[in-house]
Amino acid sequence: MAVTDLRKPINPVRAIGERIIQIALLLAAAVSIFTTAGIVFSLIFETIAFFSEVSIIEFLTDTEWTPLFANQRFGIWPLVSATVLTSAIAMVVAVPLGLIAAIFLSEFANDRVRRTVKPLLEILAGIPTVVYGYFALTFLTPLLRNFIPTLSIFNSLSAGLIMGVMLIPIVASLSEDALSAVPNSLREAAYGLGSTRFEVAVHVILPAAISGVIASIVLAFSRAVGETMIVAIAAGQNPRLTFDPTVPVMTMTSYIVQVSLGDTPYGSLSYHTLYAVGFTLFLFTFVLNIFSYWMVRKFREVYD
Amino acid sequence: MTIIHEMDRSNPNAIEARNMSVYYGSFRAVKNVNLAIEKNRITALIGPSGCGKSTVLRSFNRMNDLVASARVEGEILFHGENIYAPGVDPVNVRRRIGMVFQKPNPFPKSIYENVAYGPRINGWKLSKSQMDELVERSLRGAALWDEVKDKLNQNGLSLSGGQQQRLCIARALAVEPEVILMDEPCSALDPISTLKIEELMFELRQNYTIIIVTHNMQQASRASDYTAFFLMDSDRAGQLIEYGPTSQIFQNPKDERTEQYISGRFG
């Protein structure tokens, strides 16, 4: 009998099928990479086009943003201040409430409560943001006006507060995962020294899980910076450099919505502003991510 | 809240279990244990896997409370007070009956902070120098000081396994307990580290009562004063078979099952 040829496939069809699947998988992975690269490149190109007409110094030093008016001014700070203000208000709500919820679920609640409450909390994250936006505009703002009569119809306070509510499940759910991942041996060690539940949670478990907790907070902040519908509906359309939470403002995302909805001609200067603002937004989240990476490494308490 | 009385000198026992049974849900894991642990002695709990020796140990400082389904019947007396009586705060029990676990479990903090943790949460108002002193005393007590005195700010997890376990002992000593429970403290350690821990136990015995669970019979025979032998009964509940001075249990056991176990015929 002839020597078996090891190079000859036993089943040629199977070998070809294997090859096709490999290529399909590679293509699927490549799509997301090319899309990301495409977005970044188009942002950069259009942003360069913008800066060929407007000086970067004006962009960074002017305090007015009026690209759609006759008297065009291109200072980015009014949009940045509004984004920072609404996001900061949101974090004031989301971080404490989210962390308390996470600590309760991970360290105090029994299994049954945890299994019921966590999915319920995550439903909050499934509510469309447009619903949150109208909730802020038509419910929270009128309510707050009972206490703050000078509050404008559109304001960053109620937009920020509602955005904070939207972000609670992100902080709570991801922090809970980080807290639960801390090995039980550390809990036993702490209880064995006569710690109360609260001391175990705050002095041992939270520090051990801090990198995951910080990651959840930064992710929530990134979401706040990029959040569009709530601020577009409830925070107003008035670019102004202020940190007063009671007056209408315009965030970077609100501006993008405004221009996209309007009849801005393609290729015009006001069209290019979209990309300049978009690029600033991108830089914001990019820096946030690097910052969180650094924080996580700096504060991580490694166990095992 | 019940106040546990100050050290009662006339009572030779540190802990006394009276007709104690432990349940996990409806399953009885340990039944009808009567056991008196003498002060300033090392008592070893031995027996094959599943005989309930760890469950008994964990009942002594209410660590089983952390398991939602666990329930203890009978009494465990500490200074004449049942630690399972209504109103007794398990936190207070654990502050006076410390524990060292099977796997070294230092906190992911510095060596210094590991030892200082207990006194801090206990709310002891110590100056910096008093705390330094307490940390040094505890680390010396755990025979670890000389190895770590120059790197107290390093992470506790950077130490070797044996050093980590001694750090855990130092951490337990820092809150000045009366009793130290050790749940197979050497099972994750090499022979040299094991020997160090055993030598350490003999030193600690002057000031503390030590109860150790071990599956290593040589360890029980060379490193304990008293030995309690547990075995699983036909209903799968662990029970105390024989209890006495270690020399008697290992050289002249009264129960046939003890004799079979220590001679290595099962388990």
From TrEMBL, chain A:
Q: Name one Pfam family in it.
A: BPD_transp_1
The family database entries (InterPro entries) matched by this protein are listed as: MetI-like, MetI-like_sf, Phosphate_PstC
- Entry membrane topology: Multi-pass membrane protein
Which cell locations does it reside in?
Answer: Cell membrane; Membrane
* Transmembrane region(s): 20-45, 76-105, 117-137, 157-179, 200-221, 274-296
Which GO terms of the molecular function aspect are on file? Answer: phosphate transmembrane transporter activity
Identify the GO cellular component terms for this protein. Answer: plasma membrane
Which biological process annotations from GO are given for this protein?
Answer: phosphate ion transport
Q: What keywords appear on the UniProt entry?
A: Cell membrane, Membrane, Phosphate transport, Transmembrane, Transmembrane helix, Transport
Domain ABC transmembrane type-1, first and last residues per copy: 80-292
Query: In UniProt terms, what function does this protein have?
Result: Part of the binding-protein-dependent transport system for phosphate; probably responsible for the translocation of the substrate across the membrane.
Family of this protein: Belongs to the binding-protein-dependent transport system permease family. CysTW subfamily.
Name the UniProt record assigns to this protein = Phosphate transport system permease protein
From TrEMBL, chain B:
- Look up the record and report any one GO term of the cellular component aspect: plasma membrane
User: Does Cell membrane appear among the keywords?
Assistant: yes
Q: Name one GO molecular function term.
A: phosphate transmembrane transporter activity
Asked if Nucleotide-binding is a keyword of the record, the answer is yes
Q: Where in the cell is it found?
A: Cell inner membrane
What Pfam families does the record tag this protein with?
A: ABC_tran
Q: How does it sit in the membrane?
A: Peripheral membrane protein
The processes (GO biological process) annotated in the record are: phosphate ion transmembrane transport
Which key words tag this protein in UniProt? Answer: ATP-binding, Cell membrane, Membrane, Nucleotide-binding, Phosphate transport, Translocase, Transport
- On the tree of life, the source organism's domain of life is Bacteria
Which residues does the UniProt record annotate as the domain ABC transporter? 15-262
> What does the protein in this record do?
Part of the ABC transporter complex PstSACB involved in phosphate import. Responsible for energy coupling to the transport system.
Q: What is this protein called?
A: Phosphate ABC transporter ATP-binding protein
Q: What phylogenetic lineage does the species belong to?
A: Bacteria, Bacillati, Chloroflexota, Chloroflexia, Chloroflexales
